[in-house]
Amino acid sequence: MKNARFSIELDYNEDRGFGGNGLDKVEFMISTNIGEDEKPLAKIASGGEMSRIMLAIKNVLADIDKVSTMVFDEIDTGISGGVANSVSEKLKAISKNHQILCVTHLANIAAKGDYNYYISKTVEENRTKTSIKKLNEEETIKEIARIASGDINDITIEHAKNLRKIA
């Protein structure tokens, strides 16, 4: 989000009265493109943009935040390439002081994980069952290869190994 501008609007209105959300009205404003006015984040940001903005906020607050575990569910929505690498670097930086749980479909992000798990769903007797399996290094390499290209072969395995090496 190279050209994004972000601001926070605070509206203190004593006439509104103190309610369940406090007295102030707080709105995050953003412009994601040059030449566009800032608009309410909740109205214009895509899921991927929202995830990356939350990552940026959490990255800034990571040193003072008292939360020990952060969950990022599909923070990779709508990104690839260089942006995915930037996101993975930010996640890795936050992980120095916080436990990070990240659901991802991108090889670049999965490759940086200290521990990788495979989550699958099956239907048994008309019920959905979710399973989680901790992957060893060989299984992690194969899964990174699979999510990188859809295939597991010598080329994708080598690519996955390289991603792990530079992580």
Give the strand content. Answer: 25-35%
Remind me, CATH topology of the largest domain?
Rossmann fold
CATH C-level category of the largest domain: Alpha Beta
How large, in whole angstroms, is the Cα Rg?
20 Å
The helix-and-strand class reads alpha+beta
Number of domains: 2
Mean pLDDT level = 87
Helix proportion: 25-40%
Q: Which descriptor suits the 3D outline?
A: globular
Order of H and E elements: EEEHHEHEHEEHH
Q: Which regions are unreliable across 5 or more consecutive residues at pLDDT < 50? A: none
Give a brief rundown of this model:
The chain has 167 residues and is of the alpha+beta class. It has helices at 41-44, 47-61, 81-94, 107-111, 137-149, 154-166; strands at 5-12, 24-31, 39-40, 69-73, 99-103, 116-124, 127-135. The strands form three sheets. The protein has a three-stranded antiparallel sheet with strand order 1-2-3. The protein has a two-stranded parallel sheet with strand order 4-5. A two-stranded antiparallel ribbon has the order 6-7.
